[in-house]
Write a structure and sequence with these properties.
Number of helices: 7
Radius of gyration: 16 Å
CATH class: Alpha Beta
Strand content: 15-25%
Shape: globular
Number of strands: 10
CATH superfamily: Spore Coat Polysaccharide Biosynthesis Protein SpsA, Chain A
Distance between the termini: 42 Å
Helix content: 25-40%
CATH topology: Spore Coat Polysaccharide Biosynthesis Protein SpsA, Chain A
CATH architecture: Alpha-Beta Complex
């Protein structure tokens, strides 16, 4: 049986203002740029097409992702917030892809195994969920898998510097997937957070 593809949208356009002057996603962890960790996990999961959304320091981020089989999309409106990058990435996925993982470029401890588990939970759910969210220690984390069909209208209306969180908060059909992976709660917002991971 051929499984329906699950796309991945890698959000790599933000300014990372809390990190300081240098582009956060280009900071090195374990010998490679932060953003490349997330991109390599998305490619290794082998679930479907991967779209990376570029904006701030776009040329440098593009270079950091060189050689990976990604579709690169520029978001000229990235300064208006995360919602614009999410819409750009989802819009670039091929039409038949029913669901998409939203992967943040500053979450280097999310591996391909977790991405596969989220996709598998979506495919096996008794009732088709609007989203699948990893939960670690009682806290919702990232990445989140979004049902592009059920959420189409809401996703199209997102604005500002927010993702799909407010949209999902109002829904009863979100599938929470318990995981024992602290990486779903670890994003790198400051140099101190990066040094703790090193």
């Amino acid at each position: 049986m051929t499984l329906e593809p699950v796309g991945t949208v890698l959000l790599a356009a933000g300014r990372g203002t809390r990190f300081g002057a240098s582009p956060k996603l280009l900071s090195r962890l374990d010998g490679k740029p932060l953003v490349r960790h997330a991109a390599e996990a998305a490619v290794a999961a082998d679930l479907g097409p991967v779209v990376a959304v570029l904006g701030h320091a776009g040329d440098e981020v593009r270079a950091a992702l060189a050689g990976l089989p990604l579709m690169l999309v520029e978001n000229p409106a990235y300064a208006e917030g995360l919602s614009t990058s999410l819409r750009a990435g989802l819009g670039a996925l091929p039409g038949p892809v029913p669901a998409a993982l939203v992967l943040l470029g500053d979450m280097p401890r999310v591996g391909p195994g977790l991405l596969r588990r989220l996709a598998e939970a979506f495919r096996r759910a008794a009732a088709v969920p609007s989203a699948v969210v990893p939960v670690q220690g009682g806290h919702r984390g990232n990445p989140v898998l979004l049902n592009r069909i059920l959420l189409a209208d809401g996703l199209a209306g997102l604005t500002g510097d927010r993702g799909a969180g407010p949209l999902l908060a109002r829904r009863q059909d979100v599938l929470e997937l318990p995981v024992d992976e602290p990486g779903v709660l670890i994003d790198v917002d400051t140099p101190a957070a990066l040094s703790r991971l090193s």
